[in-house]
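Cross-check.
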Amino acid sequence: MKAFLIGLILLVFCTGCWDMKEINALAIVSLAGVDKNPETGEYTAYYQVINPTGLSTRQGSSARAAVYTYNFKDFSLGRFTDRTSRVMPRKFFTAHLQSYIISERYARQGILDFINFIELNPERRANVVLYISDSPMNTIMNSFTPLDRVPGRFIRSLTNLVKPSFSMGTFPIRIKEMAKELHLHTPTVVPIVHYAGENPSSTTNRLEEIDVSKNGMKFGDGAVFIHARMVGRIDETSKTLYLVLNKKLMKYTETVKINGDYVDVEAQNVRVKRKWEKDKHTSLFALNIKADLRILNNQQKSKMTVQNLRQIETSFNQRLEERIESFERMGKEKGWDLLGIQDNGGNEMTWRQTKVNIHINSRMTAIGNTSTPYHLE
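Predicted model, tokenized:
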């Protein structure tokens, strides 16, 4: 009886699930986008809210859209949550946010205000992946996506596919990574999303064509950021090289030419080491690169021999060295320290005059199922 009374008294102090959120009462945001007018300073925020009934496979469902896109305009980022309560009949909820997309014109103005807003927000989503759009935000945020009806999940799935290629499973760029790299001289490269097509696929009928590349989002080039401001862009090849040389990407594909024929190889487990070499007259910055190679496609008609494998390794080394030299020149011409010389012991005033020594050592570890490709005499 005494134990019963004690238990009854304790129940009085139990509040129950006071912080429980009913899913039907939430406006679950999957994707968010921001634009900023450079002339007026006015922001436009886009939120894609998941429509549960649109995801249902039940026949006869009246709602077809998997998401609804809301947009709001204001001069302060902190007032958008309040604005959603005037239009959305559910509580604004961002805990399942997949990605942020920033317009290119906003990125070129600098997004330090956006980073601070995310970092200082009690419900911040700083681990969310960031993208830059070179297409109109209205087009990007009002388009259906193939194979996955939720655009935010579609974008995050594309990111997840390349995640194993990155060192320590790090995504290409998240808000918290950009915040950590704000004071570095080494630029931060953010993936650019582009919409292929003149008009958005705002209805599912636009996706009934088999060629989805005509109307859909794709990723390629990279936006170059220095101190949270976009200063330019680089192509997909340069973006890959940037990620490799800055120890973020450990696997990529290269094509070399051997005896007049093409060979596609995959560089795996790429390791990059940096060190300064002593010289009496100039500063020498050494890049030591090692990689394991695997043949993906071999168009040679000659038999695969040890000598031939050495040729592939040598050609890969030469090709990568040429790319790095061109990449380095481009960075110095634009004033971008893409190799991170200043952040690795270099001088802020003389880093452009620093000579870079490149040492590459690749090793063929896998050649495929056949030692000689099939061909007709």
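The longest strand covers residues 261-277. The mean pLDDT is 83. Passed to J.P. for a second look.
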